Amino acid sequence: MDSSLESSSSSNGPPTRCCRTCKIIVIGDAGVGKTCLTHRFCTGQFPTRTEATIGVDFREKLLQIDGEKIKVQLWDTAGQERFRKSMVQHYYRNVHGIVFVFDVTNQSSFCNLPLWMDECRQHSLGLEIPRALVCNKADLMSSNASVLIEQARHLAEVHGMSFYLTSAKGLKGDQVDSIFMALAQRLKSQRRESVNGRVLECRAESLKIQARVITAQETKKKWTCIC
Ligand code: GTP
Ligand code: MG
To answer: Ligand 1 atom closest to Cα of 168?
Structure first.
């Protein structure tokens, strides 16, 4: 993938100008590390201190993928139900990509994933929207985590999601970068396909119109001949 990171900004930073924005929502149980992952991607740092997200936090990063600038806008959502209520409708509007996160040290955060997927379905997010499943806190992983990880890989495969085992805290942030960069790359190629598709549709439509004109002319000719 010929992708590079051109610049980054946080929710408080200056607005970035570019051609396209991809909205990616990051969802999962409270405390699984959504804020740390998005912070790590946008700043390259593990935050020294985090508090439970209230509503939503926004982070942005400008990527350059195959010569095109894409602004990745991350919606770091609240995991706690009481902090989500008023915002849920906004989370799911005009979404281009979804990242589901669970914590490898917390089995129930994995068991709750179907509920998060249901919430996406209920808000009409179809399977055509690229999604990733992230198993976070790999630095705290115990030796018996392998069963959970296999289950997670299987779940990802069944639902057509990419799977990542990451640590927002780990020395290497490249796995964290891969989650968002791969999604942005997929969104970019999806758009190319849909643009190509639209060009073909337009061509087909214009051929249909031409065919209709010819048929109409021929019908008129035949009718004229008969009379
Ligand atoms: P909500 O905003 O409440 O939904 O939680 P969240 O999913 O945003 O979790 P957050 O990023 O705030 O992290 C919760 C706790 O987990 C914090 O104490 C983080 O320091 C810690 N944490 C997050 N990611 C990692 C990781 O990869 N490794 C380790 N060791 N700790 C992590
Ligand atoms: Mg948070």
So the answer is: 27
Q: pLDDT tens digit string along 19-52?
A: 789 999 999 999 999 999 999 999 999 999 999 9
Averaged over 133-158, what is the pLDDT? 96
CATH code (residue 76): 3.40.50.300
Domain-located, residue 211: no
Residue 89 has pLDDT above 80, yes or no: yes
Work out the average pLDDT over 84-97. 92
118 in a structural domain: yes
Torsion from C-alpha of 9, 15, 21, 26, nearest 10 degrees: 40
Ligand nearest to the CA of 31: 1
Tell which atom from ligand 1 comes closest to the C-alpha of 32: 7
Number of domains in the chain: 1
Q: In sequence order, what E strands does the chain have?
A: 3-10, 20-27, 56-65, 68-77, 97-103, 131-136, 162-165
Torsion of CA 109, 115, 121, 122, to 10 degrees: -130
3-state class percentages of the chain: helix first, strand second, coil last, to nearest 5: 45, 25, 30
Instruction: Please give the distance, rounded to the nearest whole angstrom, from the Cα atom of residue 67 to the centre of ligand 2.
Output: 32
Domain that holds residue 188: 3-196
- Tell whether 75 is covered by a domain: yes
124: left (phi over 0), alpha (psi -120 to 50) or beta: left
Closest protein CA for atom 13 of ligand 1: 33
pLDDT surpasses 60 at 207: no
